[in-house]
Amino acid sequence: MLISALNPTVGWILTSSFSIILAGFLVPYFRDPYHLRKYPGPILAKISYAWLLWVGISGRRSQIIHKIHKKYGPIIRISPSEISFSHPAAYSDVYSFGKNKATKSTFYDAFASIGLTNVFTSRSKTEHSQKRKLLHSLFTAEIAREFSRRTCMITSTLLDKWATRHVEKESCFDCVPWISFLALDEMADFVFGESFGMVTSASDLVPAPKDMRLGLDMAAPPDEYPTQHISLTSIVSSRETYNYLVGVLPPWWKAVGRRILRVQFQASTIFSGFVAHRLLQRLSTPTEAPHDLVGRFLLKVDAQEDFRPESLLSELITILVAGSDTTRNSLIAAIYYLAKSSDAQHTLHRELDTHMSSPISDITIENLPFLGACLNETLRLFSPVPLGLPRTVPEEGMMIRGEHFVGGTTVGVPIYTIHHDEAVWGENPGEFRPERWLNDGNAKLDFAHAFKPFSDGPASCIGRQMALTQLRVMIALVFKRFEIHLEDPADPLRIEDWFVRRVTECRIGVRRRYIGSLS
Ligand code: HEM
């Protein structure tokens, strides 16, 4: 009003701009192309993608969506085109195998590295199942068991370092960087047959090509171009932040997001160049009986003429991150919960002392009930991948929880929310209670329908066996060797929510229980 009175032209421009912007939000809302107007949700979420973006940026998406479900009910609208379901029964409707099931949404496009799709980013069902078939035999339970010996070795090196640096000095420390080194080293060993050496050097600085375009040139000899040292853990974190935030944006805003998040986008290129460099080094040292993923992959595709190293590179970029980020944060969470609950830690100590042999045997580790219960409870309570993995309803539409959704609608069931459902887990789903997983002989435990840390169906986690074996071994080794306490028992676990929940700090103290290393 004031501006109009002062200058009618400025006032007119402002009023018109405001009306156009408002119409831009309200016209799609009233046109309702996805027939979602009847579903409740925050008003801003119904008319604009800004709400979901804000929730993403806040780093608290899982808690906010969980709260919104409590407020508005089991089926809510979280963006103009997206619906979230909180009932565990919706999980199989959305994600299980089936003819007319939903496919991955455009959210996954942001995760495509070097311009090529991989098993994680393929949205076409046919392409996804081809890629999945090719990788399937590289992730068997047998391979996971074999790899557990390497996990033992690398973990024991880390625990030796803790013993000399922190037990002797009785000092508390942040275990996050250490466990980041451990998880990345293990994944490097699994993929390339050799760790990045981060645990040994107690540093995340690794050599990468100075010019990433050269690194990505699969024809360039890897040892002939100049390198620089990069901080691998910060590069991986920046890359994940970028992928997640650009992923949340609607397709026509993704280009803008890429410009705004230039620095994080660069991290993505640097990481791709680094992995390409490692892959080229690995390809230049052939082995006859390979025990790494690259070697096994090459044996498989040997007969195929159309093999391109770039397509293997694209898979490796994803596997290295998917396999390290998830296990790293899960292990830190397990350490935190056990350090906080002295009863649970003592029960675990007793079980490990009674049954765990040295050298560590895979079979004993697999059959330790309390260890298994601690791991399940961590994966439930922490929920390493917390969000409703976004799926697009196929053209012909689909039924979810008895409701029909039209083609193009995005749907998801937040894993964090079903992991905290009071109807399944009881009154205090926010508590760490490993006992809930132990059958006392009376109750029949039936949590499978509401326990989905690795998701379900054709795109569920391919590394599930690997992750479970690795985590069991690492938790067992850590607690066989040390008694762990939190520096400040009142400290909450500091978490940021991205695609994978990220622990930002966890300060602990360690006391020796066992002299020598178990490897
Ligand atoms: C605690 C550890 C882990 C958790 C909680 C976890 C969780 C998940 C989840 C929920 C998905 C589905 C994602 C989606 O549909 O968008 C997934 C997919 C995937 N995970 Fe894991 N993961 C873990 C460890 C691993 C490991 C160790 C590897 C590899 C070594 C791995 C490799 C993958 C790959 C390649 C996919 C894509 C599969 C596909 O789309 O077909 N993950 N993971």
From TrEMBL:
<feature type="binding site" description="axial binding residue">
    <location>
        <position position="461"/>
    </location>
    <ligand>
        <name>heme</name>
    </ligand>
</feature>
<feature type="transmembrane region" description="Helical">
    <location>
        <begin position="12"/>
        <end position="30"/>
    </location>
</feature>
<keyword id="KW-0479">Metal-binding</keyword>
<comment type="pathway">
    <text>Secondary metabolite biosynthesis.</text>
</comment>
<dbReference type="GO" id="GO:0020037">
    <property type="term" value="F:heme binding"/>
</dbReference>
<keyword id="KW-0560">Oxidoreductase</keyword>
<dbReference type="GO" id="GO:0005506">
    <property type="term" value="F:iron ion binding"/>
</dbReference>
<dbReference type="InterPro" id="IPR002401">
    <property type="entry name" value="Cyt_P450_E_grp-I"/>
</dbReference>
<keyword id="KW-0349">Heme</keyword>
<keyword id="KW-0503">Monooxygenase</keyword>
<keyword id="KW-0472">Membrane</keyword>
<dbReference type="GO" id="GO:0016705">
    <property type="term" value="F:oxidoreductase activity, acting on paired donors, with incorporation or reduction of molecular oxygen"/>
</dbReference>
<dbReference type="InterPro" id="IPR050121">
    <property type="entry name" value="Cytochrome_P450_monoxygenase"/>
</dbReference>
<keyword id="KW-1133">Transmembrane helix</keyword>
<keyword id="KW-0812">Transmembrane</keyword>
<dbReference type="InterPro" id="IPR036396">
    <property type="entry name" value="Cyt_P450_sf"/>
</dbReference>
<keyword id="KW-0408">Iron</keyword>
<protein>
    <submittedName>
        <fullName>Cytochrome P450 monooxygenase</fullName>
    </submittedName>
</protein>
<comment type="similarity">
    <text>Belongs to the cytochrome P450 family.</text>
</comment>
<dbReference type="InterPro" id="IPR001128">
    <property type="entry name" value="Cyt_P450"/>
</dbReference>
<dbReference type="GO" id="GO:0004497">
    <property type="term" value="F:monooxygenase activity"/>
</dbReference>
<dbReference type="Pfam" id="PF00067">
    <property type="entry name" value="p450"/>
</dbReference>
